[in-house]
Hints:
Elements: H1 5-22, H2 25-42
Amino acid sequence: MDEHPEMRENLDNLDADYREMARDVVREAEALEWAEATISDSWPPALGSEEGFCDT
């Protein structure tokens, strides 16, 4: 990575951008809701389950 200092700068900027996004609580809540809905939409239904989800 020492051969490419611009890569280090880009990674530092990326880290700062992610920290800034994480401070936005509303955005994070919306992202979590979206991610959970996406996973449940694509998860295969459990065998023998009427709703498609296992009771755990």
